[in-house]
Prior knowledge:
single chain; 10 helices
Amino acid sequence: MAQIIDGNLVAKITRQYAADLVAQAELRGISPGLAVVLVGEDPASQSYVRMKERDCAEVGIKSFDYRRPAEISQAGLNGIIDECNSDSGIHGILVQMPLPDGLDAEEAIARISPKKDVDGFHPLNLGRLVRGLPALRACTPWGVMAMLDHYGIDPAGKRAVVVGRSTIVGKPMALMLLERHATVTVAHSRTQDLQAVCREADILVAAVGRPHMITADHVKPGAVVIDVGINRTDSGLVGDVEFATVEPVASWITPVPGGVGPMTRAMLVLNTAQAASVSD
Length: 280
């Protein structure tokens, strides 16, 4: 049976490190702050924002709420971002996705100051990742790397397959693994013979948003399996990986819930703390 990669444990350690950075910043007269922009009434987004704000409070980061109705214009949203960009008391800006129809998410992301882009989505920060330069990094893949490090799983020389090609997870995940000297393949729903491609992986990352898409037939015996998927079903939250059949095959596996999800939030507060630490 696979050993469990405990995201809750690693997230707790990460938040403690963030709290230490916050304390150091406060000694220099800096009080780290995160602006959370939530547009509309999506229940999942509201729940997620509450958890993020709770994490911020735990490590000593101030939260600034900007909640607006779904009818807000693009100009109105841009104005909020501009206000946060110019506020020296705000070190991180989070625009909760997805935005309601009619709003341009790419325009909103690009408007955030790269130095306050704690989600790591800004084109400049993604470009710096491509170049191998320091930058604020996308929270979910950065959290996956933190989990691998904690459990001593070294990607160097390994075959890694990332199933999913989004700019939020798949692409930056592939770049981070490549940076750590893995040989990386990016696969997706249209990849021919996906099972065969996945079975080549020493490290398999599933990030497609389809419940139980990855089964035991996709997994090489002894592979490390990272399940990024969080899918709401009638039976509760499930991942992209069929845990019950894959666990006996893999060497390490992340559960859902309790795997990658807590790490995404933990890396957000860490990014905010780090942004504040270099703001002066």
